[in-house]
């Protein structure tokens, strides 16, 4: 993509409405535009990031045997009357009436709907377990939408649901998601800590929140440092490994939210315990027959007797992650995208458009990036060098490749790694390999 043609409405000044750094940088980098309180359009740069995050989340769900479906955003109220949540949910639920006066709602979550799908066709334990997920917009009329996409009213969530015949099997499903989440967040370049959680309005028996660590996080967490070293191990585990042993080891390590932490009884010595700030990006629940029993989602066990199916639900805040990643990865100059979610792989800066040598060298590299399967953003605009550097730093692409008249004449380019600021000069022929490697 050529920057001269790219729709990138960046801002020079800090927008006054943004209280936290990710919101500020998303607006300044032209990623999003607010349309109403907590409701955003995603502009090309932001949309690319959102799609990248979504794809990592999807690949990890698929890897653990979860099957993708797509349920609608609009749901009939009657389903929620069956579970009793239509009245319980209160003002967070956006209620709608259609032309025939039927009560509808914009889904804040999908337990009822997926239970309905399940009960209409699955009748025997032989068809279990089933793991289903979708990635769909949700609406919750939050009391205080704020912090940009971190607490929106309309937001994109990956929500998965598990169906099992008994508790032991349901625990195996829970463990799959537990490990899948650690692996997902590691792939996104984040440090994620599972913290035992209250089950809240979804109800049930067992629940963990996944908090990613960022200095600006909303909540305080106390963590055993060994929890920060699980990335590689989680990424190497698959659904057929002994996940129970791994999960037991991990949940045996200390991690507590502020309100649960008790310094006196904490098993980690004070000198080792880490006090960090966290942002909730995922939440998993096991809740047994909370929905299947009232909604009549039963399956016949080996003895032929029908019983309510055992369920769990598993959420990841896909749009919140776009903000959370920035909270975890930025500097004074702007965003620093982890490679896995960067909107482009590399920014190519032509310092002197119109100069025949610069144009030819930049155009050639641009083509070579494409040929190598890389996605470049080519700054071909006639702008001051300082403005080009500042904008490239702001939008945070992992690599910058700078072509100037002197380098172009000598057959070299300057390469900068955004995360470290490290700069090196390389022969033009070596540039693509360096970035690919
Ligand atoms: P929170 O405690 O932050 O309000 P929640 O516990 O109500 O979230 P869940 O029902 O567990 O949220 O939803 C699963 C995930 O969806 C959360 O972990 C979070 O990442 C994301 N999420 C929830 N509410 C919002 C929101 N208003 N805006 C953006 N993402 C959200
Ligand atoms: Mg939650």
Structure keywords:
single chain; about 425 residues; alpha+beta; BirA Bifunctional Protein, domain 2; Rossmann fold; 2 domains; nine-stranded mixed sheet; binds adenosine-5'-triphosphate; binds magnesium ion
Describe this structure in words.
- By secondary structure, this protein is α+β, with helices and mostly antiparallel strands.
- The chain has 2 domains: 3-334, BirA Bifunctional Protein, domain 2, CATH 3.30.930.10; 346-436, Rossmann fold (3-Layer(aba) Sandwich), CATH 3.40.50.
- Helix content is 32%, strand content 28%.
- The chain has 14 helices and 23 strands.
- The chain has helices at 21-28, 44-63, 77-83, 85-88, 111-119, 167-187, 231-236, 243-251, 292-295, 318-328, 356-371, 385-395, 405-410, 431-436, and strands at 32-36, 39-42, 67-68, 74-76, 94-97, 103-106, 130-139, 154-164, 192-196, 206-213, 219-223, 255-257, 274-288, 298-300, 306-308, 310-317, 330-331, 334-335, 346-350, 376-379, 399-403, 412-417, 423-427.
- Strands 3, 7, 8, 9, 10, 11, 12, 13 and 16 form a 9-stranded mixed beta sheet that branches.
- α2 (44-63) packs across α10 (318-328) and α6 (167-187) crosses α8 (243-251).
- The longest helix has 21 residues, at 167-187.
- The protein is globular, with a radius of gyration of 24 Å.
